[in-house]
Amino acid sequence: MKTLLLALALLVTGFVWAAPCYDLSKGEPRSLSGKLTYVVYPGPPNYESVQKGDTPEPTYILELASEICLQGDADFADPTVRFSSVHLWPGKETSRQLKSFVNKQVTVNVNDPFAAHTGHHHAPLVAAVTSVKLETGKPNTSRTLEFTDEYGTAATTIRAFYSALEDGQGEIASSYIVPEKRSIPAFVGANLTKFYGGLAKPIQLIDIAQTDAASYTVKYTFATKSKVCDGVANIVTTVRDGRNFIFSIKPLNGC
Q1: CATH class of this structure's domain 22-134
Q2: Which of 3, 15, 108, 129 has the most crowded Cβ, counting Cβ within 10 A?
């Protein structure tokens, strides 16, 4: 009897821990559900910290309720590895929906799923989103810097700030402001989300130009329901504990 009970216990345990293993060679998975999150990961050159000079890589991550695994790709998919995070690529038709559904439970339909194989892939599974819905079923004199010139400078922090604003993520944008100024209404995360998340055309950073060791001039564009704004601002940065922060932002043309 003891042997039988042990065998049954092992059998049950096996079912509890078994993860669905999707076959990439067959285009699996096609649909996934979980909590949608938004993370700004550090990219090149060091993949360590955007506030220490690495390029920001804003990313949508789907946190699954249970673990999965991958097969069907001998080079990059290991069916023995179980995980619960998926890196989502937004499309033109799904970008705005993903932005509005952050921190909510969603179901996404995906295509072209593949196993992560570079430092730019921030979860074991990467997939393009073709549609997304809530689980309720309701859809919803300066020198202009070249991209690589930004490595190791405060420009990466500035770029991360505007990337977060573009995606309507005010709390993340506010985290790049010096802590003592985050309570100022213009820098409060909820206020940033309300304004920049509700624009008719999201803010887009056009250009970063360095004016001195700590100052930058930025150009950007966005549109409200009533006007299009082509903005220019001066940004002063500062270093705290080895990380770059935005100390002040001064619009130069009223936008």
Answers
A1: mainly beta
A2: 108
Q: Percentage of residues in the chain with pLDDT exceeding 70? A: 88
CA–CA separation, 193 vs 233, rounded Å?
20
Ranges of H-type helices in the chain: 2-17, 95-100, 155-166, 170-174, 189-196
Reported as a single tens digit per residue, the pLDDT across 9-19 is 333 333 333 46
Pairing of strands 56-71, 31-42: antiparallel
pLDDT of residue 7: 37
User: Quick check: bond before 251 cis, omega within 30?
Assistant: no
In this prediction, residue 142 carries a pLDDT of 63
Q: pLDDT at position 8, please?
A: 34
| DSSP code at position 3 | H
Dist CA 230 CA 52 (whole Å): 29
Is-contact 233 249, C-beta < 8 A? yes
Tell me what the mean pLDDT of segment 192-203 comes to.
96
pLDDT digits (tens, 9 = 90+) for 25-43: 999 999 999 999 999 999 9
Residue 170 to residue 38: CA distance in whole angstroms: 11
Superfamily of domain 143-251: NTF2-like; domain 1 (3.10.450.100)
Nearest Cα to 197, choosing from 165, 172, 220?
165
- Classify residue 212 by burial, with Cβ atoms within 10 Å: 0-12, 13-18, 19+: exposed
Q: What is the mean pLDDT of residues 148-174?
A: 95
Residue tagged 């070249």 (tokens)? 146
CB atoms within 10 A of CB 179: 10
Structural domain boundaries of the chain? Answer: 22-134, 143-251
